[in-house]
Amino acid sequence: MRLLLKHIFRNINENKIRGFLIIFSLAISSFVLYINFVTKDEIVDQYESLMTDIFNGYEINVVSESVDASIEKDVINKIKEHDLVTDTIPIHSEFCAYIDEDSMTAQLYSTDLKKLNDAELIETNIQELKAEEIVISHSFSSEYDYEKGDTLELVTNEGVSTYKIVDVANNYGLFTEFENVNTFVTKEKSLAETNLLLVQAKENDIGDLLTEFKEEYDDDDLAVVSAVDRTYMESNVFMLEQALIIVLIITALLNILIISSNAKAILISRRSSMGTFRSLGATSGQIAFVLSLENIIYGAIGGAAGVVLIVFGKNILMSFILQGVLGINKSANVALEPLYLLITVIFAVVVQIISVVPQIRKMANEPIKGLILGYARQEKSRFILKTVLGIALLVISLFLWNINTFYSLVYAILALLSAIAGGMLILPLITYCLSFFIEKIGQFISKVFKLATKNICTSESTANNIRLSALSITLVLLLVITTLSIQNIFSNISKYLDADYQIYGITQKEKEYDDLADVKGVKDISFASQIWDEFKVNGEKYNFILASFDKEELGVVNEIGDISKLKSGEAMIDSFYAVSMGVEIGDFLTIENTDFKSKSNKIEVKIVGTLDTKSYTAQRNVLVITPEQFKKEVRDYPSVIYVYCDQNANYEQVKRDLYTELTGENVVVQSVDDYFAHQEQSIVSIISILWVFLGLAVFVAIIGIVNNQIINFVQRKREFAVLNSIAMSKSQISLMVFFEVAISFFIGVMSGLVLSLWASKLMEKLMESLGLFVEFTFKWETIIILLLILFALLLLTALIPIRKIFNMKIINEIKYE
Amino acid sequence: MNTVIKVSNLHKTFKNGETEVHVLKGLDFNVEAGEFISIMGPSGCGKSTLLYLLGGLDYPTKGQIFINGEDLNKKKDRELSHMRRSDIGFVFQFYNLVHNLSVYENIALPLVMGGVSTSSFKNRIYEILDIVGLSDKKDNLPSQLSGGQQQRVAIARAVIVNPSIILADEPVGNLDSKNGQDVMKLFYEINQRYKISIVQVTHDPDMALYGSRLIRIKDGIIEKTEDIESRIIL
């Protein structure tokens, strides 16, 4: 065994370049897998830790439900005296408007600044504030260019107030640069005006205390909430998780191809040794064992390299992801989980073994004589087998796509994988057919061109190049088409959303906002009511949008039934979501949510029709009830106000006036264009992460192609030397090689293009199965430019063999012929 | 004397597309224990094919081969492998050494294949290294040896399991005459010392003279079998 291990390690050492490619590919796969394992927990942990730092133990917030109301003194004292409570900070919080070019709602905390300082919730140089003095945050200071000594105007319920900025708080505690640019502190008010009580408890007691306070104080007047809500962030990372799974599948697929082509070359170089082993009495099982052991070692080294990559790269990548998801510049500190590390190493071994099993089986069962004498086995039967299998897989992918009307993720993934595998398997047939036609055309071009086409079908390295280029092009185009198509979500939704501004953060009934229609420049306003939350439906948990409509609007379209005829107690559901929820017309649903207005926290509805809501939300997880039932049993205030402006209105002034009008409420007035830009940006962040991984994978593929070019030259240099000695000049041989490379990459690029179009259709279905409806469109101009660039890059690799041909010493190569 | 190889009505046909090539056309011969047989014939007459068939590396189209009384046709791949690592030693024209194993390790390789601990065979390996004259090269890699030395390693490897037969395919075909003669002398010495039967395929009449019997093959049949009267005796 020691001797065999020695032999294996020496083999690995001899195949440095190919071995490096294999190990690098495996390391990337392992890295991606580990990132898949830890991303969700890391983001949620970072969010939790950030919020914990911000609130520094004052995690329980008791808030009065109405902006005008305050918390009773008795309640404040009772909470303060509770055994588990270590401290409380009473605050009068009000929302005011900061009116400028970039208007916004600001949060004004009137509280004891010394207490905030002592509680380490703020870091300022002063301890006490006088009337009309204010402390601003560091981020507000830098973003709006305010300094100590400046005056700041805020619009409160009492009118415009002018404050003198006496200090700029450090980026710390409640003023940490995270969604709280707009918090200010002013002089404290009387205890009777307290409407926000920050409660501190010992770390271990927070959970119990929160539950107790919720039971005791959470009612129509008061809300008891935790400032550190893991579930909020857990539901927000769903899309990123899905994207990372797709990256993992694509990376593993590409790696399997790269590894199999490299491992094939390594194994072919081992044929003679294996022949010797066989002649010395090794059974085919022993040969398979030796080769498998070698590849298990490759896998283990690749996995170990992955662990190194994980150790050094995990925090860098995770910081990038945190920046994209949370929008914070915070160094990630991803834990090294031994179990996950072990799984990633095992994963690398499995990927390696999957990649080489066909070749090992082939070699182990090859006739000994062929192994010893170096006869290649007849590949014709395998060509036919591969072609038949490839066509079968493509048909299977078509079949799965066709029958997958119930949005099965498994079917969608299988269809995509079948298509890519099938496409790769029929490449030899495509190569054969295309090179046949090109050869026919070639005879009118030049004899060198014709000779080049003849070589395309016979060279193993060329076949590898075609495979690698086709797969790389497929994946790159698939990603480009997906990225470009995602923008369709917004253009689709924007077709139905013709408002100029939307206002959210609403807490009062519709009639309270009627005055907004009178703001100068506002033509009309409309309300939308929806809750996107986790609901219990007939006892099962689902995450969806419960909305109210009385007609088709905002992209909600009738399929079966008519929204305008919906009665109280009836509901219509998106047809896709009905399938994934297992709901049919006629079913009765009991929907539960603790935030419902009804005393029982339940509503009961009968499904009477289906909707198409893909233009309302790309996730299509929508259930619609009547506005009457919504107001009566779910929530009596709207979630969004849409504002339609006059054509000639001064849009910026309208925004300022809306903020002024809404003073006292924690609302955001956002232009619809800004909303779409923000949404697109969040998707782009996720896609950019995807690009990083695919970029690495394509980089490996290009190294593989370069490597193939070198191997191809080494294998054929005697042939080139003979051609040079009998008929062709080095220039002609170089031209022949250039034509070969150009034709093979042309075939690869065209095959990749066709395959990517089909794969895009399958990706569309896969994304639908993930609950994301994206209408795929093909922007040909971009695709063609990209293809031309990639083709040109691939052509550059022809320089390697051409340079070597010109440097070739003919006599050295032919003297053994 | 025991018959170690018995060949009966041996046929071998190769198919190449539509074409069939009948390489061996009904060979019959025996090899007795301790015999040193030289097989000669022109290129393409089927000499090497015969050798591969004798070693169970290939299958006959028709006919039988008995090694130590056992019919190769009735043996499964696993049993043939077992036979190769215990009863048969191979020596090839191009040595077929494992390039990244040392001389010592190459010789020990058949033992490893048989699942035997190489340390228990240490003395035997040193004894054979001494016989082939490579004791001082035991840690060298094949690339650090001359052709003749590499072929000696191949012979040592064939002998290590103490087989009853050594099959040698053009063992000196790749060597100059001096090295060729040295290798043939080694075969002769092994044949004499260990009484191992040797079947060598050669196209060199001088090298054939190291054997005790000569089988001439032409066009797939045995043209002539003769005892070598002018055998080189060392």
Helix count from the secondary structure assignment of chain A: 25
Shape of chain A: elongated
Helix content range of chain A: 55-70%
Strand content of chain B: 25-35%
Main traits of this protein?
heterodimer, A: 817 residues, nine-stranded mixed beta sheet, elongated, B: 234 residues, Rossmann fold, six-stranded mixed beta sheet, 10 strands, globular
What's the short story on this structure?
With 817 residues, chain A is of the alpha+beta class.
Structural notes for this entry:
The complex is a heterodimer of chains A (817) and B (234). With 817 residues, chain A is of the alpha+beta class. Chain A has four domains: 1-57 and 227-377, no CATH class; 59-222, no CATH class; 397-408 and 417-496 and 679-817, no CATH class; 506-666, no CATH class. In chain A, strands 5-6-4-7-3-2-8-1-9 form a nine-stranded mixed sheet. A six-stranded mixed beta barrel of chain A has the order 11-12-17-14-16-15. The model of chain A has no long low-confidence stretch (mean pLDDT 84). With 234 residues, chain B is of the alpha/beta class. Chain B has one domain (3-227): 3-Layer(aba) Sandwich (Rossmann fold), CATH 3.40.50.300. Chain B is 32% helix and 29% strand. Chain B has helices spanning 47-54, 77-86, 103-113, 122-132, 147-159, 177-194, 205-208, and strands at residues 3-16, 19-32, 36-40, 62-67, 70-71, 88-91, 165-169, 197-201, 213-218, 221-227. Chain B is globular. The A-B interface holds A 1, 3-4, 6-7, 10-11, 14, 272-273, 275-286, 367-369, 372 and B 52, 55, 57-58, 77-78, 81-86, 90, 92, 96-101, 105, 108-110, 112-114, 118, 157, 161.
